[in-house]
UniProtKB/TrEMBL annotation:
Upper lineage: Bacteria, Pseudomonadati, Spirochaetota, Spirochaetia, Leptospirales
Top-level taxon of origin: Bacteria
Keyword Transmembrane among UniProt keywords: yes
Alphabetically ordered keywords of this record: Acyltransferase, Membrane, Transferase, Transmembrane, Transmembrane helix
Protein name according to UniProt: Acyltransferase
Annotated TM spans: 20-39, 59-76, 97-122, 142-160, 192-212, 224-241, 253-272, 292-312, 333-353, 359-378
Residue span(s) of domain Acyltransferase: 15-374
Alphabetical list of InterPro entries matching this protein: Acyl_transf_3_dom, Glucan_succinyl_AcylTrfase
Name of one Pfam family that matches: Acyl_transf_3
GO molecular function, one term: acyltransferase activity, transferring groups other than amino-acyl groups
Length: 400
């Protein structure tokens, strides 16, 4: 019996990846609302009545969402570098991420720390806190840590790009994994998934052996930094090898198997994190448990990334007015949503309503207010788009 095989619809921009990133962004808004009501996940704002359901959702989202962003950033960094050259790459990437990082830390990051301070008895207003406690003492990126890491990864990538290219060609030779190589693509994809799991596990175990998960140096957490850069670096390996994970023909049976695998890995990860708390030192409950814990975390993240890429290829690959709107709004929405969610949540958690009334109201108001502010104030404002890093960069001058 012939397999039901579907070839993803063509997309000049790989539109399904844009759609996937928009989905991950929307999921991030839900994540920041859900963890207010989670039983175990620590967050500056917490509801009195909490449920483990939100812990499961939060851990699931956290397993793949940021690794997905870093993986795609690594892939598109290499693609942009090859097509634009180093000077234009640095200029374009700097414009896209450095401007929103600086403006975001000033405008949006303090809200999280102010809410935490007020919860602990701080009595002065926001502006006093912003100047005396945040700006003069300890400015931190809050939810903008992603942009902070991405800035560092970008400049580090420029410095070590030759090494990454050699590693990519060594571990994933084009003769075996290139787009025009022969052999079973399903076998190659399984090999790629296993390699990526071991790749991220190796680097994360190595750094976790020397540093605790929550240790911080100059707002950088070494364990998180290395874990995420393993996804970013791996993304740069797949130029000319897209058919193994980013693009190419796939079957719905393959998609189903990948989904079952991803779900099983998540539940295994969720189980082992309960017996090997990640905040503890390496080997706290046994070396093998920590290695298995990190392996399930890494492989689970990669499995969900591969699943969602395939899923969006099949079912959500078209460019529409809605998808274009979400793509254009993604950076401003990412920047502004967190203080909006905290502000709404700060009012809602004071009420005595049941948790299943608070959460959907909190979620709905966060989406409505975030996109309302973008649509009415930011979307058509060149100035606001510019300070949020969303204005188009001017093209490089033509060489004479």
């Amino acid at each position: 019996m012939a397999l039901s095989v579907a070839k993803p619809r063509s997309a000049k921009r790989l539109d399904y990846l844009d759609n996937l990133r928009s989905f991950a962004l929307l999921l991030g808004l839900a994540f920041h609302v859900a963890i207010v009501y989670a039983a175990d996940i620590k967050y500056p704002l917490r509801n009195v009545d909490r449920s483990w359901t939100f812990d499961v959702f939060g851990e699931w989202v956290h397993l793949f969402r940021m690794p997905l962003f870093f993986f795609l950033s690594g892939y598109f960094s290499e693609r942009t570098f090859r097509s634009k050259g180093m000077a234009n790459f640095v200029r374009l990437r700097g414009f896209r991420i450095l401007i929103p990082l600086v403006s975001g830390i000033i405008l949006f990051a303090p809200a999280q720390y102010y809410v935490a301070a007020v919860s602990n008895g701080y009595e002065h207003n926001y502006f006093v806190f912003f100047w005396n406690e945040f700006l003069l003492k300890s400015p931190k990126p809050s939810h903008l840590w992603f942009l902070q890491y991405l800035v560092l990864y970008t400049f580090l990538y420029v410095a070590i790009r030759p090494v990454l290219n050699r590693l990519g060609n060594f571990f994933l030779p084009e003769s075996r994994y290139g787009n025009f190589s022969t052999g079973s693509i399903q076998v190659k994809r399984a090999e790629i998934l296993l390699f990526l799991g071991f790749w991220s596990t190796f680097w994360t175990c190595l750094i976790n052996y020397f540093f605790l998960k929550d240790q911080t140096f100059f707002t950088i957490e070494p364990v998180q930094f290395v874990y995420d850069i393993s996804f970013f670096a791996a993304g740069s390996f797949f130029i000319g090898k897209e058919s193994t994970i980013i693009d190419g023909v796939s079957s719905k049976i393959e998609l189903g198997i990948l989904g079952i695998l991803a779900l099983a890995l998540f539940w295994c990860f969720y189980w082992i994190k309960s017996i090997d708390p990640f905040w503890s030192y390496f080997g706290y409950t046994g070396d093998w448990r920590r290695v298995l814990h990190i392996f399930l975390k890494c492989l689970g993240g990669w499995a969900w990334i591969a699943f969602f890429i395939r899923f969006f290829q099949f079912f959500i690959s078209d460019r529409t007015e809605v998808s274009e709107y979400l793509r254009n709004s993604s950076l401003p929405v990412y920047l502004i949503h967190h203080p909006i969610s905290l502000g709404i949540g700060f009012g809602i958690v004071q009420e005595t309503w049941p948790i299943w009334a608070k959460f959907p109201l909190h979620l709905l108001l966060t989406y409505l207010l975030t996109f309302g502010i973008y649509h009415l104030l930011i979307r058509n404002s060149f100035f606001l788009n510019a300070i949020l890093g969303n204005a188009k960069a001017k093209p490089a001058p033509a060489e004479s």
